[in-house]
Amino acid sequence: MSAATPEQRRPAVLSGVAVPALDAEALFDVTVEDGVFTRIEPSGTRRGDEPELWPGYTETHAHIALPANFDDTAEDPRIIALQYLYHGVTHVVDMFGYPMVADAWEAGRAASDLPYPELVHCGYAVTAMTNAAGLSGHGVEFPTPVYMLAVEADLDQALRNNAERGATFLKVMFTDGTEQPGSKVRFSRLSERVLRFTARIAAERGITAVIDCNTLEETRWAYDCGFRLFAHTVRDRTLGDAEWKDLAGARFVSTLSGLRPMVMTADDFLAAYGREGFAETQDVRNLDAVRGLEQPYGITYGLQETRTGALGDMRRNALAALREGNLLVGTDSGNTGAYHGYSLLGELDLLRGDDPSLADALRHQATVGGRRYFDELRGESGAAHPISVGAPATYNLHAPGRPLSALPTATVVRGTPIDRQAVARAIAGLRAAAAAGTTTHDTKEGAAL
Ligand SMILES: [Zn+2]
């Protein structure tokens, strides 16, 4: 952002706003000066219809370098940054692949008048070697590099290389790709020995490790080897009390948005993409792609039933984790149909379902919980509450009673209000420039394709 104007340096006062993350019953007067909160004081009792101030959202499971569009194209990272900003997502955790776009992201940020979301990343993921049956570790199938671990020394190399690229945590791929016990094994898996070693070395070096598992068996195995952070919830069954007891202290990221497009019909898609903000931020050619869909991809690929079942289990397990304060709200954005920014707000609706009593807890986890996680991944576990005196004034205002997926009524980043229409215009400008570039490219080289 360019230097603050005198107007922005003048104290801004929000009188009588609700800050449910601090006190559900009270109203507050909040003062912002020079981009930070300088006063947060109770000023009365809440009636219910006052605007709510929450920290900016944190997307806790994103892949900026993966193609979210149905034609398998990845968005320009400069557009992705603004897609997040538009939806009030001010912090993003990239769960592998970011180094591929790091230069473009940084150059875009340096040239942008609008603030980019803060981002933390793990570099490239680690996974298993190709095994005797010819199966590779999960992650090899994505258009980003991964490190394949066979022996302990491979981990050291991966950690060094990722650190050099600015990574601050470790992403371990572990699932063999089965969604139900007995379904087809798609990937090789790390041995127990390497898994145990990986958890131990990460802990010794103070690096937070997040692991990717599908089934309860995989999750238990990883837990027993020392992992406590899971990139998805368990998808092959709804866990009971005894099973939760065995996973005490484990935290899970919800990723319904990234898994759901596989089972959606054309009507499901059009409803999901019919919320405010889609046309302003996303490539609208995706609407044509889903409009013409004759049947869900799950039927085409023969996994409609297992995936539908998996989504139900994942949601129920996510809500159980929510009750214990162990849910992180994420989407696996960058997977087909899981759009940056837009899908995080949709994820909240998917988690809430028809139970309005979940709304505040979900928003709390998507804001305060997400930010705490973000700070932990960047190595600042003891960071102050995001709504406290001295903290950056990065927040959203929400109208009470609206759906969780509704756009914030205001987004403020380090004290600067974001003009949402200006963000939409900047996205449109980048798309127009890219389209003009494509035309030239087609004219020159189209004949060769
Ligand atoms: Zn992912």
3D structure, described in words:
Keywords: Hydrolase. InterPro entries: Metal_Hydrolase, Metallo-dep_Hydrolase. It comes from Kitasatospora xanthocidica. This protein is an alpha/beta fold and 449 residues long. It has a single domain, classed as Metal-dependent hydrolases (TIM Barrel), CATH 3.20.20.140. 37% of the residues lie in helices and 19% in strands. It contains 16 helices and 17 strands. Helix 2 runs antiparallel to helix 16. The C terminus is likely disordered. Zinc ion binds next to loops.
What topology emerges from the helices and strands here?
Blueprint: H1 6-9, E1 12-19, E2 23-33, E3 36-45, E4 52-55, E5 57-62, H2 77-86, E6 89-94, H3 102-111, E7 118-121, E8 125-128, E9 146-149, H4 152-164, E10 169-173, H5 192-204, E11 208-212, H6 216-224, E12 229-230, H7 241-246, E13 251-254, H8 256-259, H9 266-272, H10 278-281, H11 285-291, H12 297-300, H13 304-323, E14 327-329, H14 342-352, H15 359-377, E15 395-398, E16 410-413, E17 416-417, H16 420-445
Parallel strand pairs: 5-6, 6-7, 8-9, 10-11, 12-13, 13-14
Antiparallel strand pairs: 1-2, 2-3, 4-15, 15-16, 16-17
This protein binds zinc ion.
